[in-house]
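// run 5 | inverse folding | seed 20
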Protein backbone atom coordinates (compact mmCIF):
# COMPACT_ATOMS: atom_id res chain seq x y z
CA UNK A 1 0.00 0.00 0.00
CA UNK A 2 1.39 3.37 -1.05
CA UNK A 3 2.25 5.75 1.72
CA UNK A 4 -0.36 8.46 2.08
CA UNK A 5 1.09 11.95 2.57
CA UNK A 6 -1.33 14.64 3.69
CA UNK A 7 -1.33 17.90 1.79
CA UNK A 8 -0.14 19.70 4.91
CA UNK A 9 3.02 17.61 4.92
CA UNK A 10 3.61 18.19 1.22
CA UNK A 11 3.11 21.96 1.58
CA UNK A 12 5.38 22.05 4.62
CA UNK A 13 8.06 20.14 2.72
CA UNK A 14 7.73 22.44 -0.29
CA UNK A 15 8.01 25.59 1.85
CA UNK A 16 10.74 24.35 4.15
CA UNK A 17 13.58 24.99 1.70
CA UNK A 18 12.90 28.70 0.97
CA UNK A 19 11.98 29.30 4.60
CA UNK A 20 15.19 27.62 5.74
CA UNK A 21 17.17 29.81 3.34
CA UNK A 22 15.35 32.87 4.70
CA UNK A 23 16.14 31.92 8.28
CA UNK A 24 19.79 31.26 7.44
CA UNK A 25 20.03 34.70 5.82
CA UNK A 26 18.45 36.24 8.91
CA UNK A 27 20.98 34.50 11.15
CA UNK A 28 23.84 35.65 8.90
CA UNK A 29 22.59 39.23 9.01
CA UNK A 30 22.29 39.11 12.78
CA UNK A 31 25.86 37.83 13.00
CA UNK A 32 27.05 40.54 10.66
CA UNK A 33 25.33 43.31 12.62
CA UNK A 34 26.79 41.91 15.84
CA UNK A 35 30.30 41.93 14.37
CA UNK A 36 29.80 45.47 13.08
CA UNK A 37 28.67 46.60 16.53
CA UNK A 38 31.74 44.95 18.07
CA UNK A 39 34.04 46.67 15.55
CA UNK A 40 32.41 50.04 16.26
CA UNK A 41 32.75 49.45 20.00
CA UNK A 42 36.40 48.51 19.61
CA UNK A 43 37.09 51.56 17.47
CA UNK A 44 35.32 53.92 19.86
CA UNK A 45 37.09 52.32 22.83
CA UNK A 46 40.42 53.00 21.17
CA UNK A 47 39.41 56.53 20.21
CA UNK A 48 38.07 57.46 23.64
CA UNK A 49 41.10 55.85 25.27
CA UNK A 50 43.23 58.56 23.63
CA UNK A 51 41.63 61.07 26.00
CA UNK A 52 43.31 59.16 28.83
CA UNK A 53 46.90 59.68 27.65
CA UNK A 54 46.19 63.30 26.81
CA UNK A 55 44.97 63.80 30.37
CA UNK A 56 48.12 62.14 31.70
CA UNK A 57 50.25 64.18 29.29
CA UNK A 58 48.65 67.43 30.43
CA UNK A 59 49.26 66.50 34.06
CA UNK A 60 52.86 65.53 33.29
CA UNK A 61 53.39 68.82 31.43
CA UNK A 62 52.05 70.77 34.40
CA UNK A 63 54.26 68.81 36.81
CA UNK A 64 57.29 69.19 34.54
CA UNK A 65 56.81 72.91 34.06
CA UNK A 66 56.22 73.63 37.75
CA UNK A 67 59.14 71.39 38.77
CA UNK A 68 61.41 73.15 36.30
CA UNK A 69 60.40 76.59 37.50
CA UNK A 70 60.74 75.50 41.14
CA UNK A 71 64.27 74.18 40.58
CA UNK A 72 65.15 77.55 39.02
CA UNK A 73 63.54 79.47 41.89
CA UNK A 74 60.98 81.05 39.55
CA UNK A 75 57.77 79.19 40.35
CA UNK A 76 56.09 82.45 41.31
CA UNK A 77 56.88 84.09 37.98
CA UNK A 78 54.34 82.08 36.03
CA UNK A 79 50.71 81.24 36.58
CA UNK A 80 50.40 77.51 35.87
CA UNK A 81 47.27 75.36 36.29
CA UNK A 82 48.89 73.99 39.48
CA UNK A 83 50.05 76.05 42.46
CA UNK A 84 52.46 73.67 44.17
CA UNK A 85 54.63 70.65 43.60
CA UNK A 86 52.31 68.61 45.80
CA UNK A 87 49.25 69.58 43.76
CA UNK A 88 51.04 68.87 40.49
CA UNK A 89 52.09 65.40 41.63
CA UNK A 90 48.70 64.60 43.11
CA UNK A 91 46.93 65.46 39.85
CA UNK A 92 49.47 63.46 37.86
CA UNK A 93 48.99 60.42 40.09
CA UNK A 94 45.21 60.70 39.83
CA UNK A 95 45.30 60.97 36.04
CA UNK A 96 47.66 57.97 35.77
CA UNK A 97 45.44 55.91 38.06
CA UNK A 98 42.31 56.80 36.06
CA UNK A 99 44.08 56.03 32.80
CA UNK A 100 45.26 52.61 33.99
CA UNK A 101 41.78 51.71 35.26
CA UNK A 102 40.17 52.74 31.97
CA UNK A 103 42.64 50.73 29.88
CA UNK A 104 42.17 47.69 32.13
CA UNK A 105 38.39 48.01 31.89
CA UNK A 106 38.40 48.19 28.09
CA UNK A 107 41.06 45.50 27.67
CA UNK A 108 41.60 43.88 24.27
CA UNK A 109 43.13 46.05 21.57
CA UNK A 110 43.05 49.10 23.84
CA UNK A 111 45.19 47.37 26.46
CA UNK A 112 47.66 46.18 23.81
CA UNK A 113 47.90 49.62 22.22
CA UNK A 114 48.67 51.43 25.47
CA UNK A 115 50.79 48.74 27.18
CA UNK A 116 54.09 50.49 26.22
CA UNK A 117 52.85 53.80 27.62
CA UNK A 118 51.79 52.20 30.90
CA UNK A 119 55.13 50.39 31.13
CA UNK A 120 56.95 53.69 30.58
CA UNK A 121 55.15 55.27 33.52
CA UNK A 122 56.38 52.65 35.97
CA UNK A 123 59.61 51.50 34.37
CA UNK A 124 63.07 52.99 34.02
CA UNK A 125 62.76 56.73 33.61
CA UNK A 126 59.23 56.54 34.98
CA UNK A 127 57.50 59.02 37.20
CA UNK A 128 59.10 57.84 40.47
CA UNK A 129 62.63 58.02 39.06
CA UNK A 130 61.96 61.55 37.81
CA UNK A 131 60.79 62.76 41.20
CA UNK A 132 63.64 61.26 43.21
CA UNK A 133 66.44 63.66 42.17
CA UNK A 134 64.12 66.64 42.58
CA UNK A 135 63.25 65.65 46.15
CA UNK A 136 66.92 65.11 46.93
CA UNK A 137 68.10 68.42 45.42
CA UNK A 138 69.47 70.90 47.97
CA UNK A 139 71.52 73.16 45.71
CA UNK A 140 70.87 76.74 44.67
CA UNK A 141 67.63 77.54 42.88
CA UNK A 142 68.50 80.44 40.57
CA UNK A 143 67.45 81.27 37.04
CA UNK A 144 70.85 82.60 35.99
CA UNK A 145 72.79 79.49 37.05
CA UNK A 146 72.96 76.22 35.15
CA UNK A 147 71.10 73.50 37.05
CA UNK A 148 71.83 69.96 35.91
CA UNK A 149 68.95 68.50 37.93
CA UNK A 150 66.52 70.98 36.38
CA UNK A 151 67.83 70.20 32.91
CA UNK A 152 67.67 66.43 33.44
CA UNK A 153 64.23 66.70 35.00
CA UNK A 154 62.80 68.69 32.09
CA UNK A 155 64.25 66.29 29.53
CA UNK A 156 63.12 63.22 31.48
CA UNK A 157 59.57 64.46 31.77
CA UNK A 158 59.61 65.30 28.05
CA UNK A 159 60.76 61.76 27.18
CA UNK A 160 57.96 60.33 29.30
CA UNK A 161 55.46 62.65 27.62
CA UNK A 162 56.68 61.44 24.22
CA UNK A 163 56.19 57.81 25.31
CA UNK A 164 52.64 58.61 26.39
CA UNK A 165 51.89 60.42 23.12
CA UNK A 166 53.24 57.72 20.78
CA UNK A 167 50.18 55.38 20.93
CA UNK A 168 47.86 58.26 20.05
CA UNK A 169 49.68 58.85 16.76
CA UNK A 170 49.55 55.13 15.95
CA UNK A 171 45.83 54.88 16.69
CA UNK A 172 44.98 57.61 14.21
CA UNK A 173 46.11 55.24 11.42
CA UNK A 174 43.82 52.40 12.51
CA UNK A 175 40.66 54.39 13.28
CA UNK A 176 38.09 54.03 10.49
CA UNK A 177 35.64 56.80 11.37
CA UNK A 178 36.88 60.03 9.77
CA UNK A 179 35.66 62.30 12.57
CA UNK A 180 37.25 60.19 15.31
CA UNK A 181 40.46 59.88 13.31
CA UNK A 182 40.67 63.64 12.82
CA UNK A 183 40.04 64.23 16.52
CA UNK A 184 42.82 61.82 17.52
CA UNK A 185 45.22 63.56 15.12
CA UNK A 186 44.28 66.98 16.50
CA UNK A 187 44.85 65.84 20.09
CA UNK A 188 48.24 64.41 19.19
CA UNK A 189 49.32 67.53 17.29
CA UNK A 190 48.00 69.93 19.93
CA UNK A 191 49.68 68.00 22.75
CA UNK A 192 52.99 68.08 20.92
CA UNK A 193 52.50 71.78 20.21
CA UNK A 194 52.09 72.50 23.92
CA UNK A 195 55.39 70.68 24.43
CA UNK A 196 57.12 72.72 21.72
CA UNK A 197 55.89 75.96 23.24
CA UNK A 198 57.09 74.88 26.70
CA UNK A 199 60.52 74.06 25.27
CA UNK A 200 60.63 77.35 23.40
CA UNK A 201 59.68 79.45 26.40
CA UNK A 202 62.16 77.65 28.65
CA UNK A 203 65.07 77.93 26.22
CA UNK A 204 64.32 81.56 25.40
CA UNK A 205 64.24 82.58 29.05
CA UNK A 206 67.38 80.57 29.92
CA UNK A 207 69.32 82.07 27.01
CA UNK A 208 68.36 85.54 28.11
CA UNK A 209 69.10 84.92 31.79
CA UNK A 210 72.45 83.18 31.34
CA UNK A 211 73.84 85.30 28.53
CA UNK A 212 73.97 88.96 27.81
CA UNK A 213 70.20 89.31 27.56
CA UNK A 214 70.20 89.14 23.75
CA UNK A 215 69.83 86.14 21.44
CA UNK A 216 72.63 86.85 18.98
CA UNK A 217 75.02 83.91 19.08
CA UNK A 218 74.67 81.57 16.04
CA UNK A 219 73.58 78.52 18.11
CA UNK A 220 71.06 80.67 19.96
CA UNK A 221 69.72 82.17 16.74
CA UNK A 222 69.42 78.76 15.09
CA UNK A 223 67.51 77.39 18.09
CA UNK A 224 65.22 80.44 18.19
CA UNK A 225 64.58 80.19 14.43
CA UNK A 226 63.83 76.47 14.70
CA UNK A 227 61.41 77.10 17.57
CA UNK A 228 59.60 79.87 15.71
CA UNK A 229 59.38 77.83 12.52
CA UNK A 230 58.19 74.58 14.13
CA UNK A 231 55.60 76.19 16.41
CA UNK A 232 54.30 78.40 13.60
CA UNK A 233 53.98 75.57 11.11
CA UNK A 234 52.40 73.26 13.68
CA UNK A 235 49.84 75.90 14.61
CA UNK A 236 48.88 76.45 10.99
CA UNK A 237 48.54 72.70 10.45
CA UNK A 238 46.34 72.25 13.52
CA UNK A 239 44.03 75.10 12.60
CA UNK A 240 43.92 73.85 9.01
CA UNK A 241 42.96 70.32 10.10
CA UNK A 242 40.26 71.58 12.45
CA UNK A 243 37.41 71.30 9.95
CA UNK A 244 33.89 69.91 10.02
CA UNK A 245 32.89 69.16 13.60
CA UNK A 246 36.10 70.76 14.82
CA UNK A 247 35.91 73.94 12.73
CA UNK A 248 34.58 76.18 15.49
CA UNK A 249 37.16 74.81 17.92
CA UNK A 250 39.90 75.61 15.40
CA UNK A 251 38.72 79.21 15.05
CA UNK A 252 38.61 79.63 18.82
CA UNK A 253 42.11 78.18 19.14
CA UNK A 254 43.47 80.52 16.49
CA UNK A 255 42.01 83.57 18.22
CA UNK A 256 43.02 82.55 21.75
CA UNK A 257 46.53 81.50 20.72
CA UNK A 258 47.00 84.81 18.93
CA UNK A 259 45.86 86.60 22.08
CA UNK A 260 48.61 84.96 24.17
CA UNK A 261 51.28 86.46 21.89
CA UNK A 262 53.67 83.53 22.45
CA UNK A 263 54.08 82.52 18.80
CA UNK A 264 54.52 86.14 17.80
CA UNK A 265 57.15 86.52 20.52
CA UNK A 266 59.12 83.57 19.09
CA UNK A 267 59.19 85.32 15.71
CA UNK A 268 60.12 88.60 17.40
CA UNK A 269 63.11 86.95 19.10
CA UNK A 270 64.39 85.75 15.70
CA UNK A 271 63.95 89.19 14.14
CA UNK A 272 65.39 91.32 16.95
CA UNK A 273 67.26 88.98 19.30
CA UNK A 274 65.29 90.48 22.19
CA UNK A 275 63.47 88.25 24.67
CA UNK A 276 60.44 89.81 26.33
CA UNK A 277 60.25 87.57 29.37
CA UNK A 278 57.12 89.25 30.65
CA UNK A 279 55.25 88.57 27.41
CA UNK A 280 56.39 84.95 27.32
CA UNK A 281 55.42 84.26 30.92
CA UNK A 282 52.10 86.04 30.55
CA UNK A 283 51.42 84.09 27.35
CA UNK A 284 51.79 80.73 29.06
CA UNK A 285 50.01 81.86 32.25
CA UNK A 286 46.58 80.82 31.00
CA UNK A 287 43.57 78.97 32.34
CA UNK A 288 42.88 75.31 31.64
CA UNK A 289 40.08 76.21 29.23
CA UNK A 290 42.12 78.65 27.14
CA UNK A 291 44.23 78.31 23.99
CA UNK A 292 45.72 74.85 23.49
CA UNK A 293 44.63 73.55 26.90
CA UNK A 294 41.00 74.36 26.15
CA UNK A 295 41.30 73.12 22.57
CA UNK A 296 42.54 69.69 23.68
CA UNK A 297 39.75 69.40 26.24
CA UNK A 298 37.08 70.40 23.71
CA UNK A 299 38.39 67.98 21.08
CA UNK A 300 38.35 65.20 23.68
CA UNK A 301 34.70 65.97 24.45
CA UNK A 302 33.86 65.98 20.75
CA UNK A 303 35.47 62.54 20.41
CA UNK A 304 33.47 61.23 23.37
CA UNK A 305 30.24 62.61 21.90
CA UNK A 306 31.01 61.09 18.49
CA UNK A 307 31.84 57.75 20.10
CA UNK A 308 28.53 57.77 21.98
CA UNK A 309 26.70 58.55 18.75
CA UNK A 310 28.41 55.72 16.84
CA UNK A 311 27.81 53.21 19.63
CA UNK A 312 24.15 54.23 19.92
CA UNK A 313 23.70 53.99 16.14
CA UNK A 314 25.34 50.55 16.06
CA UNK A 315 23.16 49.39 18.96
CA UNK A 316 20.02 50.68 17.24
CA UNK A 317 21.00 48.96 14.00
CA UNK A 318 21.69 45.74 15.86
CA UNK A 319 18.33 45.90 17.64
CA UNK A 320 16.61 46.57 14.31
CA UNK A 321 18.29 43.59 12.65
CA UNK A 322 17.46 41.37 15.61
CA UNK A 323 13.85 42.54 15.52
CA UNK A 324 13.52 41.94 11.78
CA UNK A 325 15.20 38.54 12.14
CA UNK A 326 12.82 37.60 14.95
CA UNK A 327 9.85 38.65 12.85
CA UNK A 328 11.15 36.61 9.91
CA UNK A 329 11.57 33.54 12.09
CA UNK A 330 8.12 34.02 13.59
CA UNK A 331 6.62 34.56 10.15
CA UNK A 332 8.38 31.43 8.92
CA UNK A 333 7.00 29.38 11.79
CA UNK A 334 3.50 30.71 11.21
CA UNK A 335 3.61 30.58 7.41
CA UNK A 336 3.72 26.79 7.04
CA UNK A 337 0.58 25.98 9.07
CA UNK A 338 -1.29 28.99 7.71
CA UNK A 339 -0.51 28.20 4.08
CA UNK A 340 -1.17 24.51 4.66
CA UNK A 341 -4.47 25.27 6.28
CA UNK A 342 -5.46 27.69 3.53
CA UNK A 343 -5.01 24.84 1.00
CA UNK A 344 -6.15 21.83 2.99
CA UNK A 345 -9.22 23.33 4.63
CA UNK A 346 -11.08 24.07 1.33
CA UNK A 347 -10.03 20.66 0.00
CA UNK A 348 -11.29 18.91 3.12
CA UNK A 349 -14.53 20.87 2.91
CA UNK A 350 -14.84 19.95 -0.76
CA UNK A 351 -14.16 16.28 0.03
CA UNK A 352 -16.79 16.26 2.78
CA UNK A 353 -19.40 17.91 0.57
CA UNK A 354 -18.56 15.58 -2.33
CA UNK A 355 -18.92 12.59 -0.02
CA UNK A 356 -22.25 13.90 1.24
CA UNK A 357 -23.31 14.54 -2.34
CA UNK A 358 -22.52 10.97 -3.35
CA UNK A 359 -23.96 9.28 -0.30
CA UNK A 360 -26.97 11.37 0.59
CA UNK A 361 -27.87 14.43 -1.39
CA UNK A 362 -27.76 13.04 -4.93
CA UNK A 363 -29.50 9.73 -4.13
CA UNK A 364 -32.13 11.64 -2.18
CA UNK A 365 -32.70 14.00 -5.11
CA UNK A 366 -33.01 11.06 -7.53
CA UNK A 367 -35.51 9.28 -5.25
CA UNK A 368 -37.48 12.50 -4.94
CA UNK A 369 -37.70 12.71 -8.72
CA UNK A 370 -38.66 9.07 -9.06
CA UNK A 371 -41.32 9.35 -6.37
CA UNK A 372 -43.02 12.30 -8.03
CA UNK A 373 -46.83 11.58 -7.74
CA UNK A 374 -48.87 11.11 -10.89
CA UNK A 375 -50.44 14.29 -12.08
CA UNK A 376 -47.46 16.28 -10.93
CA UNK A 377 -44.95 17.37 -13.50
CA UNK A 378 -41.58 15.76 -13.11
CA UNK A 379 -38.93 18.41 -12.45
CA UNK A 380 -35.58 18.81 -10.73
CA UNK A 381 -35.83 19.33 -7.00
CA UNK A 382 -34.01 22.23 -5.34
CA UNK A 383 -30.36 21.36 -4.88
CA UNK A 384 -27.83 22.75 -2.41
CA UNK A 385 -24.68 23.52 -4.36
CA UNK A 386 -21.21 22.68 -3.11
CA UNK A 387 -19.71 25.84 -1.67
CA UNK A 388 -16.06 26.68 -0.92
CA UNK A 389 -14.57 30.01 0.22
CA UNK A 390 -11.82 30.20 -2.32
CA UNK A 391 -11.35 31.58 -5.82
CA UNK A 392 -8.77 29.09 -7.03
CA UNK A 393 -8.66 25.59 -8.51
CA UNK A 394 -10.62 24.22 -5.56
CA UNK A 395 -13.49 26.51 -6.52
CA UNK A 396 -13.22 25.20 -10.11
CA UNK A 397 -13.55 21.60 -8.86
CA UNK A 398 -16.57 22.60 -6.76
CA UNK A 399 -18.17 24.15 -9.84
CA UNK A 400 -17.56 20.93 -11.82
CA UNK A 401 -19.12 18.85 -9.05
CA UNK A 402 -22.12 21.16 -9.01
CA UNK A 403 -22.42 20.65 -12.77
CA UNK A 404 -22.18 16.88 -12.29
CA UNK A 405 -24.90 17.08 -9.65
CA UNK A 406 -27.18 19.10 -11.92
CA UNK A 407 -26.53 16.77 -14.86
CA UNK A 408 -27.26 13.69 -12.76
CA UNK A 409 -30.53 15.13 -11.50
CA UNK A 410 -31.49 16.23 -15.02
CA UNK A 411 -30.89 12.69 -16.28
CA UNK A 412 -32.99 11.35 -13.42
CA UNK A 413 -35.77 13.77 -14.37
CA UNK A 414 -35.60 12.68 -18.04
CA UNK A 415 -35.66 9.00 -17.11
CA UNK A 416 -38.57 9.53 -14.76
CA UNK A 417 -40.44 11.41 -17.45
CA UNK A 418 -39.77 8.66 -20.00
CA UNK A 419 -40.96 5.96 -17.62
CA UNK A 420 -44.12 7.93 -16.86
CA UNK A 421 -44.84 8.55 -20.54
CA UNK A 422 -44.24 4.89 -21.36
CA UNK A 423 -46.55 3.63 -18.62
CA UNK A 424 -49.25 6.06 -19.65
CA UNK A 425 -49.03 4.81 -23.26
CA UNK A 426 -50.04 1.32 -22.20
CA UNK A 427 -52.93 2.45 -20.06
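// decoded
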Amino acid sequence: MALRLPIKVKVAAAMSVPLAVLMVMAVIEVGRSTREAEVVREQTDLATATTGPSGVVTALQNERNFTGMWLLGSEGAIDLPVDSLEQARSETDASIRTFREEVARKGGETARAFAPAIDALGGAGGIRELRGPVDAYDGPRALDQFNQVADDSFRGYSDLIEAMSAPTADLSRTTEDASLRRGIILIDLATRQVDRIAWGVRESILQMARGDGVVDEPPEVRLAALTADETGRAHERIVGLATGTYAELGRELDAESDATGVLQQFAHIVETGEVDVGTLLAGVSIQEDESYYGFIHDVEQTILDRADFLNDAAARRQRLVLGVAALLVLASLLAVPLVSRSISRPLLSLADQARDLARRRLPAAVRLVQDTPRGVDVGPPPLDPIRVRTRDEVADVAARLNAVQETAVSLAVEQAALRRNGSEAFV
